Structures are given as C-alpha cells and as structure tokens.
Amino acid sequence: MGMHRPRPARLKNFLYVGKYHYSLCFVTKARTRAFDSGELASAAIGQILKTCELEKFVVLAYCVMPDHVHLVLGGASDRSDLRRCVKLIKQRVECVARREFHVHRLWQKGYYEHVLRSRYAIEDAIRYVLENPVPAGLARRAGEYPFSGSQSPVARTSEIHHP
Question: Which of 136, 39, 129 lies closest to 93 in space, CA to CA?
C-alpha cells in the first residue's frame, strides 16, 4: 500500500480571489497515465480553456502530461476565484473522462499551487510548464509537444498584484 500524502495546504489569510497569478499542478489518482490518450488530453485542454474563460482566468501556460497537468493562470478580474475555477476544471475534465473515455476517479485529491509574486516568477513558471515534456522524453524541445501551449502573450502580466 502506498504512502498517504496529505493534501497540500493553502495559504492562511489569502482568499485566492482577484488579479493574482498561480502555478498549479493536478495529479491523476495513483499516477495513472490517463492522458496517454491524446483524445482525452485534447478534451482536457478544451475543458480547461473553456472553464478559465468563464471563470475570468487567462491561461498563460498549460501542459497535459500523461499523469498530471500543469497550469499557469492569471486572474483577469477582481472576482476571479482560483478555488472555484480549479474545482470546476477538475469536475469537468473528470466528467468528460468518465462519459467519453470510461476513466473513473481521474484525480488525486487536492492540488499543488504557488502564488506567483513577480513577473520573473511568472515567466519562470511559464518556461517550466512549456519545457516540462522535454526532460520526460515526450518532446525534443519546448513547443513540439502537442498538449502544451499558451493562450496569451506574457505581456499581459504587467498588472500583477502581490499578496
């Protein structure tokens, strides 16, 4: 039986609402390689982009790896609620996985997140996410992996709030 790891803790006294930037990672249950299916990986990207648009987040970078997902998101509104957005992303991707791909219990509980407090931290996070497939042997260089990308130029990160 595997070692149980507690859910990652959230920052105390920080609401995760507003024009903040975040680096996120969601892991599949038992590290199952659910996203080896290109169709499921593409469907996940579609759900992520749609949900972020509805929830007022800009997707600065995304990468759907075989057993986890990396995102760099920026709140586009004073009401952008990260916890709500993440909950909806995970629910919607899981719903598609169950309905169309017969994958049950897709996600591990919780998620990992870092609040990005400077332009440099945001740029580093974007680079990390886009280059993630290279050391994993899934691409020779950033930009070649079909399940990673960016919805927005980094130029939009000039309006950064610091917690």
Answer: 39
